[in-house]
Design brief:
With 407 residues, the chain is α/β, with parallel strands linked by helices. The chain is built from 14 helices and 21 strands. It has an 8-stranded mixed sheet with strand order 12-11-8-13-16-17-19-20, sandwiched between helices. A 5-stranded parallel sheet has the order 2-1-3-4-5, sandwiched between helices. Strands 6-7 form a two-stranded antiparallel ribbon. The longest helix is centred in the middle third of the chain and has 16 residues, at 175-190. The structure holds ligand PMT. Ligand PMT is lined by residues 203, 219-223, 261, 280-284, 286, 313, 315-317, 328-331, 343, 347, 355, 357, 363-365.
Length: 407
């Protein structure tokens, strides 16, 4: 078994300062604090007096296990804003009101949230929430532009129903989006793949038989989406070429949707033109119907069988000219090692990730995978059953070893 430490969440052991300002959406900040803790982060909350009127500081104290500072003069630490700011790996302000954005843009320090933001050298993520007219006001838009110019990341606001009863932009981003934006922000500042372009393929392809039927397979895209997310968490710019799957796009990942092998090939040719690595975890169909019918095929009276002639699809990874570090997968139900070793040179891969798709917990649709990695220099590494996210990091560790130094 290979020697390794599994990585399960990018926020593990990070110190996150959560600033909460006064908005009806403050209740969602409690869920955010809880999810940050569940991800293994240390969470320290600072609030404005207005936020403390919407939600009790005790709620955050109970969720985070730490004192919450609303009034710096009553904090246990002297110079609390400096101490909290110094401990932060990142500061997230959610919800961020129009008043908060204005304070940040103009360097004002009238409350504990603005004070801490001014005092920290850590990256800052703001999640605005307000009525749409306040969001669209030129003053707010200029403040947001100023903050973006200074490197502050902004997630949302989302379009939808607002507390005023109107609809428009102004809703606080949902917790998974804020967490995704935070992971991306941390990756872009400190990740070992920052500045790199990683291309990932995921999911099945659907090869039409007629307008309502297709040749496909059981791939759900979970493995490829986990690789895309892990690469984003390490700071890469990620292009995810996805077959037909029912998964949300990870925040910050550039997704290109395709249906067939022919479309996947074109999308990957374009995406890999400047890629540092391509990771083919998709399950493209090896064969497609020769002549898809224009209309739904009907049963003829007495008909017992139907023959559909199939023709071979192009091998996508074998046809791609470059792509940088080239990684393939081998999905097998028997002779895993032999088939994987044959595919390495045939597809011009640096390494191949083999999974027995008939083993419990492995392969299609599962949250976990058990893989063996075969390298082009003959090395073989075996791993136990891990989350697909942890497998993704093992793959990216090996991609990193083979990357050419950045120009
Ligand atoms: O999506 P999930 O439900 O999470 O399941 C994950 C998975 C089982 C699909 C994934 O772990 C996996 O094994 N992906 C590869 C599936 C596959 O097509 O394996 P293969 O042994 O048939 O192909 C070998 C390699 O050639 C693969 O990298 C494949 O992407 C590539 N290929 C295959 C056919 C083709 N026409 N063009 C290709 O590039």
């Amino acid at each position: 078994m290979a020697d390794f430490t599994p990585r399960d969440h990018p926020l593990q052991d990070r110190h996150i300062v959560l600033g909460v300002t006064g908005s009806i959406s403050c209740y969602k900040a409690a869920d955010l604090a809880s999810k940050l803790r569940q991800a293994g982060a240390a969470v320290e909350v600072v609030m404005t007096p207005a936020a403390a009127r919407f939600i009790a500081p005790l709620t955050f104290k109970s969720l985070t296990g730490r004192d919450v500072v609303v009034d710096m003069f009553e904090a246990a630490e002297t110079e609390a804003h400096v101490e909290v700011a110094r401990r932060a790996d990142a500061m997230v302000i959610a919800p961020a009101t129009a008043d908060c954005l204005a304070s940040l843009a103009h360097g004002l320090a009238g409350d504990m949230v603005a004070l801490t933001a001014l005092a920290t050298a850590a990256p800052i993520l703001v999640a605005p929430a307000m009525d749409s007219q306040m969001w669209e006001h030129p003053a707010t838009q200029e403040n947001v532009a100023t903050l973006r110019d200074r490197g502050v990341e902004v997630v949302g606001p989302m379009i939808g129903r607002l507390a005023s009863g109107r609809s428009g932009p102004g809703r606080l981003a949902e917790v998974p989006e804020i967490l995704g934006a935070l992971c991306q922000l941390l990756g872009q500042r400190t990740g070992d793949l920052r500045g790199r372009h990683i291309v990932v393929s995921a999911g099945p392809t659907y090869e039409p038989i007629d307008p309502v039927r297709f040749v496909g397979n059981r791939s759900t895209g979970k493995m490829g989406f986990a690789i895309a997310e892990a690469a984003r968490d390490r700071g890469a710019f990620v292009t995810l070429v996805a077959g037909p799957v029912a998964l949300e796009t990870p925040w910050g990942v550039h997704r290109v949707d395709v249906q067939t092998v022919a479309e996947m090939l074109v999308a990957l040719e374009q995406a890999t033109a400047d890629a540092d690595a391509v990771i083919m975890s998709a399950a493209p169909a090896d064969f497609r119907p020769v002549s898809p019918a224009d209309h739904k095929i009907k049963k003829a009276p007495g008909q017992e069988t139907l023959a559909i002639e199939l023709t071979q699809n192009p091998d996508i990874i074998a046809s791609l000219p470059g792509g940088g570090v080239r990684v393939g997968f081998a999905a097998e139900t028997r002779n895993l090692a032999d088939y994987a070793r044959q595919k390495l040179p045939a597809k011009r891969l640096h390494f191949i990730v083999a999974n027995d798709v008939s083993a419990p917990g492995s392969g299609f649709g599962t949250e976990t995978n058990e893989v063996v990695i075969f390298h082009d220099d003959g090395r073989v590494e075996e791993f136990p059953l891990l989350s697909k996210y942890a497998v993704a990091h093992l793959i990216l560790d090996r991609v990193l070893e083979r990357l050419q130094p950045s120009a």
